[in-house]
Amino acid sequence: MNARRANDVAAAWLARLDVPADHRLADAVADVVDTLAERPYAIAGALRRFGEALGADGWPMHLVMDHVVALHPLLRRRHRKRLRSLQVVGSLAEGWAAGYVRGAHTGTCIDPITGLATAVVLRVRLREVEAQCRTAGTTAASAYCVVLIDLDTQGLDVLDADLLMACAADMTTSVFAAGETVARVGQRLVVLAPVSEHTLTRVDIVRDRLVLHSTTHRGSPTVVVDHLPAGVAPERYLTDLLA
After folding, report:
1. In the chain, how many domains are there?
2. Residue 118 located in a structural domain
3. Contacts by 163-166, CB closer than 8 A, 24 or more apart
4. What is the pTM of this model?
């Protein structure tokens, strides 16, 4: 794809979106098309930036995905194949989530005590996981698990309870630091992680640290690995978790 062709594709893509003129959207579109033209191997990074830019502006995830799908008919087969890869779709979703959290919805996405994601973000990530796995021809239940960390703060005053949760969050994110989603749901921390031996090893590390630490052991921490039920939408699983 030469420079003239890239400009034509970018203009046609914007026209297909049929949305009000927005220089940030235009810049994000140009970034994706230019990357496809000049460095197609780096398209995952461009789609992450695209998702992050639109997420920060408050675009809902389904419209961001629709925007990318609108580009497909304008591309040759090899470029369409790149856009449909699991890595690229995942990068788009991760970028959108990062932008959405830092953008207009910060207050509903970040727990003020622990700095972790909230149930809102966890719900979004579960939707993304389901879509990514469907694209890859697998299931969320076979690819991902959920680590549930429960803490008992009953009997503690507010400050002590907040300190306990903040300490537990810090220990958890120091171990699960490879891009996993870590959220606070009430007095429970929830980690969405890939099914792997490495995940199980880190679960043991977190459990030991929580039990042995002078602050968090007061919450009688329990750490278990739960599997997303087969045949049940991940979002439904979260609804049951919050019930």
Report:
1. 2
2. no
3. 163/215, 164/215, 164/216, 164/218, 164/219, 165/113, 165/114, 165/189, 166/113, 166/114, 166/115
4. 0.58
